[in-house]
Specification:
InterPro entries: Bact_Kbp, LysM, LysM_dom_sf. Pfam families: LysM. This is LysM domain-containing protein. This protein has about 220 residues and is an alpha+beta fold. The protein has two domains: about 5-130, Beta Barrel (Elongation Factor Tu (Ef-tu), domain 3), CATH 2.40.30; about 170-220, LysM domain (Membrane-bound Lytic Murein Transglycosylase D, Chain A). It is about 20% helix and about 30% strand. The protein has helices at about 70-85, 140-150, 180-190, 195-200, and strands spanning about 5, 10, 15-20, 25-30, 35-40, 45-55, 85-90, 100-110, 120-130, 170-175, 215-220. The strands form three sheets. It has a seven-stranded antiparallel beta sheet with strand order 2-1-7-8-9-6-3. A hairpin with an 8-residue loop joins strand 8 (about 100-110) and strand 9 (about 120-130). Helix 3 (about 180-190) crosses helix 4. The model has no long low-confidence stretch (mean pLDDT about 80).
């Protein structure tokens, strides 16, 4: 299993992940029948887990290729939370095969305990994000509406010549700490498009989760 939070790969997987996925149901009392359930819209999903960010390198079950420091992790997560930034959360493996979407950081707690003095112990909770755009309705009076209907529209006389120049091909040289997700987030604004970079550079990348400083990738 692997977990990415806006391109940040967690070095230590949590022992347990809790996913809350409720259906909106309202109970209505009907005479001579009793309580009847009315099914509404699904409620927002929530995901929470606990883990820690090691201060140094570990062997065993910990990801030795991770370069996430406790300081940078806290700074990034707190910024996402306070600014209300929707982040891309991806959880791989049998449990999280369908978890790859936008979430908000609802809760982020840090602590320490004996044996973990130099590490960052944290508890984090995510709430599913749904975008919405409020519509502004303007009511015009009758005279203004009639004036708008009678006003002639200007015709466009300028013609644009077709563009013949091809955009220059982009490339990226891998530096320490890079991931394909992070590179895709930089160039496309969407980390989940990392597969496009992987497909364009299959001759250089054996495993999309392992890239090395100095490699140069074509950005399609």
């Amino acid at each position: 299993m692997f977990i990415f939070i806006e391109g940040i790969k967690l070095p230590v997987n949590p022992e347990e992940i809790k996913l809350e996925d409720k259906q909106g149901i309202e109970t209505v009392a009907i005479i001579d029948t009793g309580n009847v359930p009315l099914v509404g819209n699904p409620e927002l999903q929530s995901i929470e887990f606990e883990s820690f960010i090691p201060s140094g390198r570990y062997d065993g079950n910990y990801q030795r290729n991770s370069r996430v420091s406790p300081e940078s992790f806290v700074s990034s997560i707190r910024k996402f939370k306070t600014e209300g930034t929707p982040i891309q959360l991806m959880i791989g493996g049998a449990f999280g095969s369908a978890i790859n979407g936008k979430f908000l950081v609802e809760q982020f707690d840090v602590s320490t305990k004996t044996g973990y003095e130099n590490d960052l112990i944290y508890k984090i909770k995510f709430l599913q994000y749904r975008s919405h755009k409020p519509r502004k309705v303007t009511i015009k009076d009758k005279q203004a509406l009639e004036a708008t209907k009678k006003k002639p529209q200007a015709k466009a006389t300028e013609e644009r010549s077709p563009t013949t120049e091809k955009p220059a091909q982009k490339s990226h040289t891998v530096v320490s700490g890079d991931t394909l997700w992070g590179i895709a987030q930089t160039f496309y604004g969407d980390g989940s498009r990392y597969t496009e970079i992987y497909e364009a550079n299959k001759d250089k990348i054996k495993d999309p989760h392992w890239i090395y400083p100095g490699q140069e990738f074509v950005i399609p």
